[in-house]
C-alpha cells in the first residue's frame, strides 16, 4: 500500500469526509481485534480516515461453554463491516482472512455484510502481496 507522508498544515479535509491533507493519508489498521465499544472513540478523536486495513477471519478457539463452536477472538465479516461503517471508511481493505485453519468467517462473509450495509463499493480486495495507492 502506498501512502505518501507529508501533511498539509492547513488541516483542510474537503467536504467528502476524506482525510486528504496534502499528500498524507490517515489509515486505520485493526490488527487482530474484535468490534468493541471503544472503537466508537476513533471517529470522535480523528476527523476522518482514508482507508481501513481490517484483519478478518473470525478466529475461533475452544472455550468452555462455547464448545463446540468456540470463542471468536478476531473480527469476522459482520464485525469487520460494522467497523467499516462505524469509522465511515471510504476504502475497506480486508486482510488476514484466510491465513489459518481456525478462521471461521471467509471473505464472502465480509462481502455480504458490506453489501447489506450499502457499502460494497468501498470494498478494496487485494491479491496476497498486492498493493493499492490511496
Description:
This protein has a domain at 29-36 and 52-122. Helix 2 (77-86) crosses helix 3. The chain contains three helices and five strands, in the order E-H-E-E-E-H-E-H. Strand 1 (27-29), helix 1 and strand 2 form a beta-alpha-beta unit. The protein has helices at 41-45, 77-86, 107-116, and strands at residues 27-29, 51-55, 60-61, 71-72, 92-95. The protein has a three-stranded parallel sheet with strand order 1-2-5, with no helix packed on it. A two-stranded antiparallel sheet has the order 3-4. The longest helix is centred in the middle third of the chain and has 10 residues, at 77-86. It starts with 26 loop residues before the first strand and ends in an 18-residue tail after the last helix. Helix content is 19%, strand content 12%. It is globular. The chain is an alpha/beta fold and 134 residues long.
Amino acid at each position: 500500500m502506498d501512502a505518501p507522508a507529508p501533511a498539509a498544515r492547513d488541516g483542510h479535509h474537503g467536504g467528502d469526509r476524506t482525510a486528504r491533507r496534502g499528500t498524507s493519508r490517515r489509515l486505520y489498521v485493526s490488527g487482530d481485534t474484535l468490534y468493541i465499544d471503544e472503537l466508537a472513540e476513533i471517529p470522535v478523536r480523528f476527523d476522518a480516515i482514508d482507508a481501513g486495513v481490517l484483519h478478518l477471519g473470525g478466529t475461533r478457539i475452544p472455550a468452555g461453554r462455547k464448545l463446540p463452536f468456540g470463542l471468536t477472538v478476531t473480527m469476522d465479516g459482520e464485525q469487520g463491516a460494522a467497523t467499516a461503517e462505524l469509522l465511515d471508511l471510504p476504502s475497506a481493505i480486508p486482510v488476514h482472512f484466510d491465513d489459518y485453519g481456525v478462521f471461521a468467517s471467509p471473505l464472502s462473509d465480509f462481502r455480504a455484510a458490506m453489501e447489506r450495509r450499502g457499502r460494497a463499493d468501498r470494498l478494496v480486495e487485494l491479491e496476497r502481496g498486492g498493493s493499492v495507492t490511496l
